[in-house]
Amino acid sequence: NGTEVVGPPVLDTGLSEADYSFIWQYNGVDIAGATGSSYMPAQGGSYSVVVTDLMSGCQSSDSTTVTESGPPVVTAEVTTLAFADDHVIQATATGPGVYEYSLDGGPWQESGTFTGVSAGEHIVTARDVNGCGIGVVQVLVIDYPKFFTPNGDGYHDTWNIVGISSIPGAKIYIFDRFGKLLKQLSPLGEGWNGTYNGELMPSDDYWFAVYYNEPRDNSNKEFRAHFTLKR
Q: Is 6 helix (H, G, I), strand (E, B) or coil?
């Protein structure tokens, strides 16, 4: 779960020190003082041992590779602009291990790039392929719903720009098809409930304009589009 402590490995010949002598090597070089039947490596690399039978003088050897692993430190960002046609999240995991990635609990993949990401909050998880821990980071994608259904069933009852709460200074205006201002929304509010002066607005397309600072470069932006009210 990313918090476990994994001790260093032990290379063990399983032989008796009364019957055999041992010389351990790291990357082909003798390790000073490493003459026991087992050895605890302190770093990754190639380890070998030369074993000598004390009675016969016969020698044999064996080798193995130790790979370092550990929990990742994960960063992730949306590399596309707000309201892009195809949102992309790029995640990076750093650490001593080899890592793979998952978006919102989906399939694991070697690449940290996720395309076609929907608007809203997403969770990127990276894990060490050898089971030495995970890292998790949250990412917010800004875009707008193409429709809403204010019928009181608890689903899509209000309309607001998804993820815009991360830009509290944004200004959002909703208009009818003739350009009449119906509502100004707060990026921190629940959104528009489909009424004007207490009256239900009919099923139709409605337009909006949003003025905001683009998260990628903090530049001033204006975006206009339309969405559908369905009853």
A: coil
